Amino acid sequence: MTILSVLIILLGFIGSLVWLFRLQVKHISFNKRVLFGLLGGVVFGLLIRLLFQKTTHFSTSISWISLVADAYVALLQMLVMPLVFISIVGAFTKLEVSKNLGKLARNVIAILLGTAAISAVVGYLAVVAFRLNGAVFTEGVAEKTRIAALAEKQVQVKGVPITEQLLNLIPRNVFADLAGTRPTSTIAVVIFAVFLGIAFLGIQKKYRSEAKTFAELIQSFEKIILRVTTLVLRLTPFGIFALMARVMATSDFAALVNLGRFIIASYAAILLMFALHLVLLIWVKVSPREYLSKSWSTLLFAFTSRTSAGTLPMNVETQVEKFKVNEAVANFSASFGLSIGQNGCAGIYPAMLATIVAPTVGINIFSIQFIVSLIAIVTISSLGVAGVGGGATFASLIVLSSMNLPIAIVGLVISVEPVIDMARTALNVSDAMVAGIVTDRLLKKPIQSKPVKNVEFAK
């Protein structure tokens, strides 16, 4: 029966993928196919968990499902550095005037860091409201393994002063950062792209021919990268199905019950921060209903894929096409939002973990010193958190190590990471979109950019 169970699971999995492909052939909309992939993955994952979890070769079946899920995520990660680099440099090549460039950058970064500081407060309040401060969670085999692995990672950040952490954001070898060899590689690529863009603006008048050639080269490369992105994003319904099936089939429901209050508190904090995003939009006369109706497909993609970086092209397209945000502003906010001020992964999450664990080492979480330190450290450490898997863990290690707090809490919540990370990622993407929309509305004289042909990401 064990081999037969594997065959049944694989046939069901392949049949589901074929069904999704047939929906594409029938020209069912991309958003509907993503939603069907999400719901289908949840149902399929629960079914094989209930029917086959206790069979001998259950893990073998899951490994084949993981092949599709991990391959999809790997393809998204493949696009991260090229998209970040080309989006920022491409934005500079489309600028016709640069006098508002400083204001653009200041506004985007101020909004991203400002919301990161607020999200730290929200995370703190969520722990207090749900009485999680000092909470103790069950430590199983998986948690012990994760804690041991985190101890090795902590060596990279423990004892490193904030000034040195900021210095690590600067690229020393841009080729190494383009290869993603450091946790801060994304922000390093952003910084290099900004310098390259400023240099381009500086030679426009004196070396017009060379500047034009460079601009055409970058814009050609941008179109090719966007085309590659289109090809990858067409695989989204299949990838989402596999991801959700694996999550539902392998989730530790006992851990979900044990950490239930933490999950509820996390979602409450995320929803509250999302509501604050809507308030910020109301300030610039964008209604919550308009924002939700126009951005839901992008937020759904972020929720299901769990990658802010993979959502970058959809983020830009949503801002430009649906909210009429200037393309340069949209590229800046979406790219900077990948590595600066991520409200979910770099704001709420590390703030909650720090507030939970602080009382266990005798720290009064209600003291002004603790609250101010928490907000400051979370805000500063939100610089350079990559918008791919593991960013929240890296941010948490920095915050906990900087505040001399135990890191074991990061490993203890490993069992519910996927469940919370979906909402965190959607909040990260929302923050980047809000930064672009608000900045665009605040600029008195919108930055003019050359018209570009719209790229449709999914058909």
TrEMBL record:
It is found in: Membrane. Its main location: membrane. SUPFAM superfamilies: Proton glutamate symport protein. GO terms for cellular component: plasma membrane. Pfam families: SDF. Belongs to the dicarboxylate/amino acid:cation symporter (DAACS) (TC 2.A.23) family. This is L-cystine uptake protein TcyP.
